[in-house]
Amino acid sequence: MQCQTGSRGSYVATTRTTAGEPLERIERLASENAVVIFSVSSCCMCHAIKRLFCGMGVNPTVYELDEDPRGKDMEKALMRLLGASPAVPVVFIGGKLVGAMDRVMASHINGTLVPLLKQAGALWL
Amino acid sequence: MNSPSTELPRSMAIYEQFHHISRWGDGFDSNNTGSSAIVPADVGLKNKAEYISCEQVEPSISDQETNKPTDKIRRRLAQNREAARKSRLRKKAYVQQLESSRLKLAQLEQELERARQQGIYISGASDTGCFGLPGTVNSGITAFEMEYAHWVEEQNRQICELRTALQAHVSDIELRILVESGLNHYCNLFRMKADAAKADVFYLISGIWRTSAERFFHWIGGFRPSEILNVVVLQIEPLTDQQHLEVCNLRQSSQQAEDALSQGVDKLQQSLAEGVASDLCSGNYKAQMVDAIDKLEALENFVNQADHLRQQTLQQMVRILTTRQAARGFLAMGEYFHRLRALSSLWAARPRESG
Asked: Is residue B33's pLDDT more than 60?
């Protein structure tokens, strides 16, 4: 059940913890930057995905969920979103969900990742 | 007893008569001062046993002694030489036998070690304690080993079929079927490996399921996609400009993905080492072990992602190329691995210098 806490642009800090809130926070954070990665600082696959983008010359915005007080809820929300565990790493490009490591790698190999990055303004020719 | 008229024949006749006695008799120092030094020691003992029986005969041949010892000495020298030669030959044969047994032992020890590493999943001695279900661990890996052996056989058959089809210039439709089979065959391998990774990821990472030359190129549980692209691309020229560009992009993105995964594995190694090595002096490691097990489970993820990358690269390769080019590509790939396996066999069977 979604809880309307206002439009994206006017998020207000609240102590209510309804089901939709973490997901909305995720979506809001994802839309603020061209490339957004949700990660856990001790996760090595997260490290790998960060290195992948850095290696391509992209500067992603990384949110370490283990360093966020609401991180646990966000992790659960991401798991529901992806329909799988583990919840991290998850990548959003241009505010849209791309997916976990396998989706990111698949799109890089089939040549769709770079145009997506260019479109979002994360990569220039 | 004979009594020859001349001295020489007499000595010879007497020599003949007392031949078998004199062989024992020559060992007595009191009668043969000249020859005592050259009689072999093993004859000496027997001589002592026969001493009494010979003593009676000795007085009658004492005046021929000066002639007999020369022949006897010469004969004895010859026998000594012969005995020594035979002894040396026996010793040489014995040493050679020891050497070859030593080599055989080393070989058997190597085989045993190899079988032990693979067969530990059958005996399930030390590793199963951590997994709780020994049966599951054993069967997962032994099942993979059997399936992989069949996979290689099928791979070789497919290579032959591809080669025949390309040489016979069959239609594109038929080639398409072969290309799809080739791709499917690799997908099957990655599926098998996913199951094996659940059973024991270290087994896949070690590369022990592959031959030695293949293992030299091992990367996170299998072949490195960009390396294979390099191998294949040379065999499928000519490519159009568009294809060249796409192949370059594929190679680059594959390399970037490989680098990223490699760095992830490096971080995992570092993290694991730090975890296991914390608080070494206290000797208390239970907490560290639990933490380490969690980290090792992450390794399974990396092997799966590496296989996923392999599959994606192969699929993209097929997309870029024409049917005929893709068929040649799969043939090249299959032949390349086949040669690496053959190289491993040759290497193992090469003659080695004996120490």
From this structure: no
